[in-house]
Design brief:
The complex is a heterotetramer, with two copies of chain A (268 residues) and two copies of chain B (310 residues). Chain A is an alpha/beta fold. Helix content of chain A is 29%, strand content 21%. Chain A contains nine helices and 14 strands. In chain A, strands 2-1-5-10-11-12-13-14 form an eight-stranded mixed beta sheet, with helices on both faces. Chain A has a two-stranded antiparallel sheet with strand order 3-4. A two-stranded antiparallel sheet of chain A has the order 6-7. Chain A is globular, with a radius of gyration of 18 Å. In chain B, helix 3 links the parallel strand 2 and strand 3. In chain B, 60% of the residues are buried. Classes of the chains: A alpha/beta (268), B alpha/beta (310). Chains A and B meet through helix 4, helix 5, strand 9 and helix 6 of A and strand 5, strand 6, helix 5, helix 6 and helix 8 of B.
């Protein structure tokens, strides 16, 4: 039996990465975490957004890595950056200062209002799984002008209630975020391997806005831990172009050659 | 953490400070005591692994460790039983996954319980800035809506005295000792670093004592304008330890050993494997030079066997 | 000064920002309006004199001027009647004495009264930092026991939420426009400066718009690691104005014209002499290139007569 | 008639500068203003204190100028410094951070407790003379571990009551400074062209501790606007050595040649 992926000539992961990359506009400044966000942002830079300015929390501004970094502070980022500033400056002058157009975040758990958990599964004091923790996420979520969230969709990750709120989306919805006085607009899209979700005003609950080719509504429902809703007019995600796929695969091939194995996930 | 008055008292008692060039063994012995609050900084780049090993060799106990990204260096110290408390903001193995020794200490109290004080990067970076600025706290736009302040009493919320806006405040971190690795020092003890700088300068200026390991000691630093330079008079000890950031990297000297970070996952996942590794590579080696020789041997043997057991 | 919400509103409305390369005349015309709050920074080094002259030529009025050291550049703007308010921390002619146009405005209201808001260097530098950090205020150890807070409502005292210690707070400065001079820009509008940096980066990041005059526009900045670089996407306009910091200096290009600073004392001491100088050198010249030609002529004539009348 | 200065072979200004220079110890970090402090600090560096670290508020750390700067931001300071940091960093990390051993200040007016005025003569809102203002002084006075004050002695400058307190010494004496919670110890010496004054515990009123050669007590009394007191054991200032005078004059000659005229005063 042929899987949908094989029949389509690209994987769900590739569709997710390419969809995320397309959301980045040329000339934007983008605060990038390691893993999927870094992959998508660099794909955008290598395709339609050559002047996308990539900022990594370790200090590089305007990094143009030829291969994907394994860690957030790889030498490749430092060597290709326009400049490198100290970490407090990145967070205080550049992110908090209001100069980041897009913040790109992943998560272990996410809820219907785009709040995320990267801290702990189970109780904080008696964790079932101790996750790496906050990193740059809480302030990226608060201060970037817009936030894109990017993670694989599953009922384990898309939960009705987070075990721990590490970083906020729209809290419990409505104007709750606005009342916090955050300077950034919050998450405007969740990009998954199945679809793109967008917040629906006025509740700001995330609903399915665009479905990737070959994916069914049923698949999305099953992969979501809450009763997921669909927008009135759901779009069909454009399939990857030849150029997008080629660039993405070249980037991953170069990276694999450099690091000796597939690019790992996680911030760092 | 030291309260502000005691630091002021120390500053006013302090004589003229001037870096001494000494061995890493002497520096750790002189400045790092059991129970001390120690920051070993370096954001992926220039992580002072050699100094971490020396602390393990000298069997320091009950340390409060501060580091934005604990990384493999603190996984080793925690697994070796040196720490009772960790102040941090992201505790993973970058690009690989979990820090298993950190998780074992937190989830199962092995080899001893580890108290966590947990920040965001922006929060902990700001706490270092406050330490460097000799302020008791820093203000930031942060933590709004997050559960972190519920579990960290060193995060509070204050109001702007001009606009009444609510903002986060974090208590300053003021390490007893900060340890960093840099590319170069000159013979007077002036230190030059470049590339990814992390919070090293802030951590150095916030501390009572700063130990710097360097790739090399040179006659002339050859620094460019506005270089990240720490003058000898804010440094306590400079130790020449070539390769001392490995498996992290030193820009201009050597690259990050990503393979070691990947292999660490298997080493650290299991208590016995970890202990054997620590015994053979750290506790039974005299210094970082010997560690490096042993590591090369293990690595060559692993290559021969086609395994990842370093 | 702009309140925080309005800046946030502007940020959220702002499209993608990217520097445009244009003439200084165009930049001043596009971004500096009557009544605006303008910071022209540069601590002795890289003072944007050419831009100051262009503001005078375009007869801007009622500006609130911010600058740590008003220097001769603001003496000229104040004497020309462009300013109604000055936020500053040290107002002398460095190494020479008074700024006579500043004093005339403060002491005798000529050509119009000048309201002062006065800080210490540490206070105003901190206010710029708060502006760059998009915080409504900054905390510092400062002003304790000084009379300055009695006359400046933007200095208050707050208490640490952890230690209850009393500390000073200053309101952020958030200029509508910051103007700086730098050594180089590339053709995309990325800006590189080095040497004495003052508060230029903070002033640029704190402002809604930043105009940068540069000595030259080049293909490749050739920046070293950790260089003081402002990316094109935080800059509004880049203007090539060689010599545009004169009589201040640009490290690597030309030295400070100390003689001009000394001669300024006699020029500025007297209203008529000042007005004649301004008329001939600024108001009757089309741009900074013509100003420089006229100045060279006056200076050569003065040399011939053995006088200091520039 | 020969003036005492001529008969002594050096001027009162030279004696003042040399006395101030002697107070600086090798290896200290010294925050330097332009004018007399810069002259004295560089003399110390060129004589007994080669490793004196000079910090200028414009950003240079470890400046080793060959000629004296006319302004606080001269290229000579930048070119000879170990490094140059931004001005906020100088004030917040280095001075406030507690890393400055000695702060060196001048003043237009000074009172018996070492408080200084550099802001205004007359009322603040209707000034008789508008002085340059605070500059770095308030926080140098507060945060440097020790402060040296240096100015020519006259009844016009040494006043019973300041028109404006720009920067504090011991306020109204006793433990008033301590109660402010300042981290630095405050002024430990006022060096003038006539003598050295030191604070006398417990009041911290400045009294004459050392008189320069050829100066009479009467001269000091006349040049002080309050009833000046003398320490129980007043010392005699050591006259300048040949080496001190030669180094000082060489420095001034080099400076004059570089700037075309005598070194001006005032911060900048």
């Amino acid at each position: 039996m042929t899987t949908p992926e094989q029949s389509q000539g690209y994987t769900a992961s590739e569709m997710m990465t390419i969809t995320a990359a397309r959301l980045l506009k040329n000339g934007m400044s983008c605060f990038v975490g390691i893993g999927l966000p870094s992959l998508a942002a660099n794909l955008a830079r290598l395709t339609h957004a050559p002047d996308l300015a990539l900022i990594y929390e370790s200090g590089p501004i305007g990094a143009k890595p030829r291969t994907l970094p394994l860690s957030i502070g790889d030498g490749e980022l430092a060597e290709t950056a326009d400049t490198i500033v100290a970490t407090p400056e990145i967070f205080r002058y550049w992110l908090q200062g209001g100069h980041i157009d897009v913040g790109f975040l992943g998560a272990a758990q996410i809820d219907r209002f785009g709040n995320i958990n990267t801290t702990v599964i189970g109780a904080y004091d008696q964790p079932k799984v101790r996750l790496p923790g906050a990193g740059g996420a809480p302030e990226i979520a608060g201060s970037a002008r817009q936030v894109f969230l990017m993670l694989r969709q599953s009922a384990r990750a898309f939960v009705p209630t987070l075990d721990f709120i590490t970083s906020v989306g729209y809290l419990d919805g409505g104007d709750a975020r606005q009342r916090l006085g955050l300077t950034g607009a919050g998450p405007v899209a969740i990009i998954t391997d199945l679809c793109v979700l967008e917040p629906e005003p006025p509740s700001h609950e995330f609903v399915v806005a665009s479905i990737h080719p070959g994916v069914t509504r049923e698949q999305i429902v099953v992969a979501t831990g809450w009763p997921i809703r669909f927008a009135a007019a759901v779009r069909a995600t454009e399939p990857p172009t030849e150029a997008e796929l080629r660039t993405l695969r070249d980037l991953q091939r170069r990276t694999q050659a450099a690091h000796g194995e597939a690019h790992g996930g996680g911030e760092g | 953490m030291a309260a502000t008055p005691s630091r002021a008292a120390i500053l006013s008692q302090r004589g003229i400070c001037m870096a001494e060039i000494m061995s890493l063994r002497e520096a750790v012995s002189a400045f790092i005591t059991d129970g001390a609050t120690v920051a070993m900084e370096g954001f992926t780049h220039l992580i002072p692994f050699a100094a971490g090993h020396e602390v393990i060799r000298q069997r320091r106990r009950d340390l409060t460790l501060i580091r934005m990204t604990p990384d493999v260096i603190y996984d080793q110290l925690i697994g070796a039983g040196c720490a009772r408390r960790l102040i941090f903001s992201w505790g993973g193995n970058p690009g690989v996954g979990s820090l298993h020794r950190l998780r074992d200490a937190v989830e199962r109290g092995w080899p001893q319980p580890l108290a966590l004080q947990e920040h965001s990067h922006a929060g902990l970076a700001s706490a270092y800035v406050a330490g460097a600025e000799h302020l008791p706290f820093a203000v930031l736009r942060g933590y709004a809506g997050s559960d972190l302040p519920k579990y960290n009493p060193d995060i509070r919320f204050i109001r702007c005295p001009f606009t009444d806006e609510e903002l986060a405040a974090v208590r300053a971190v003021q390490p007893d000792v900060t340890v960093i690795h840099a590319q170069k020092a000159d013979r007077k003890g002036n230190v030059l670093l470049w590339g990814i700088l992390g919070v090293q300068k802030e951590a150095a200026l916030a501390a009572r004592h700063t130990i710097v390991t360097v790739e090399e000691i040179v006659d002339d630093l050859g620094a460019w304008p506005n270089a990240a330079l720490l003058p000898a008079w804010i440094v306590s000890a400079v130790c020449e330890v070539p390769g001392g950031a490995h498996p992290s990297y030193a820009q201009g000297y050597y690259e990050r050993n990503n393979r070691f970070y990947q292999a660490w996952d298997a080493i650290a996942r299991d208590r016995e494997t970890f202990q054997a590794w620590l015994q053979r590579h750290v506790l039974e080696t005299a210094d970082f030079a010997e560690f490096s020789r042993v590591l090369r041997e293990t690595q060559a043997a692993a290559d021969g066997e086609g395994t990842e057991a370093l």
